[in-house]
Amino acid sequence: MAGHRRWTRAELAGPVLDVAPLLLGSLLVHGPVALRITEVEAYAGTDDPGSHAFRGPTPRTQVMFGPAGHLYCYFSYGMHWAANVVTGEAGRASAVLLRAGEVVRGDEVARERRQRARRSASVVTDRELARGPGNLARAVGLGREQDGLDLCAAGAPAYLTHPEPASRAPVVRRGPRVGVSGEGGSGRRYPWRFWLDDEPTVSTYRAAVRR
Question: What is the overall mean pLDDT for the chain?
């Protein structure tokens, strides 16, 4: 969006635990829709048992191994797509899952996308529009075709901009990641979910459910 400074590859190449909370308040822009990020989760690749890349690169996770600034989109539970921003040094997998946000432009387009995917005729509220990773990806229009997309490339159809300057520093909370099973779900060892305080779009914490 005009007037907003875009995230650079060098900035996104920082350690995932540093980059993840800094993405809060940033804008994700894709076509007609812009979204302010309010909740994220950090995943540290081969150092993180909760990460898809814990056991090394596969055709699915190769994009997570860098370079930074690309999208890693994956199909979750056979139901919906989720979008991640690749961070860190090339060769060391890490990414930030975009969990929730507030649509600030293109809400009619986002609502139409969400409404098409619902089995209910009830109206999607502003709070629910991009609340949860599947809803966020659907509202912004991210899926299979955007997997590997370079957010930092000139003319890219999707990109990230830094948060607008605030009169006071936002309050950032952290806690366990949502729905992560096993050791990676430990809130004591991996309190790697970050969110903006008092944001209605932030999703509700749920522990992993055995399947």
Answer: 93
Reported as a pLDDT band with limits 50, 70 and 90, residue 86 is very high
pTM: 0.94
φ, ψ of residue 90 in degrees (nearest 5): -60, 135
